[in-house]
Amino acid sequence: MTGPAVRVRTREDLRAARRPRPLRCLGHLCVAPLWPMHGLNLGTLLRTCDAVGACMAVPRLPWVPEALRRGNTLRKPACVHWVREPLGWLAERRAAGDHVLGVELAEEAVRLADLPMARRPTVAVLGHERDGIPPEALDLLDAAVEIPMIGTGASLNVAVAGSLVLYKLAGFA
């Protein structure tokens, strides 16, 4: 018994099926790795931002622009917001009405599988890969999301964690 043949779509097919998107900030979804440790993760996360139509907020650290430039394999401009002071920026976003969601192990955290699609402007805050979100920033979160794990590690790297959360918030997963 044979079923229908699987037709693999070409790059041209995929491009033709996508909605055109202006090269500007859509303002709906933003991922904020405000305490980054590794440049490679920022570049990978930037690619995910392009895939789901999100922006990225990054701190003004000397090595970050080069990490983003090297990681932007699309070679097209990306929506990047430069943050001078992470705590002040998070407070501003919250005051502006954005939903500030931390990716963190917390008592009241919602499991990733139960995270609803973002229905209003949302900032997904990612902490330092070793130390998480700093304690002084936890008070600026509206909610937290936890990525369940059964392995021996306590967390995923910033690129993987951010990508999983962005796909859920964008309604793609």
TrEMBL record:
Start and end residues of each tRNA/rRNA methyltransferase SpoU type domain: 40-167
This protein's name: RNA methyltransferase
GO biological process, one term: RNA processing
MF-aspect GO terms: RNA binding; RNA methyltransferase activity
Record carries keyword Methyltransferase: yes
Superkingdom in the source lineage: Bacteria
Entry keywords, A to Z: Methyltransferase, Transferase
Gene encoding the protein: spoU
InterPro entries: Alpha/beta_knot_MTases (IPR029028), rRNA_Methyltransferase (IPR051259), SpoU_MeTrfase (IPR001537), tRNA_m1G_MTases_N (IPR029026)
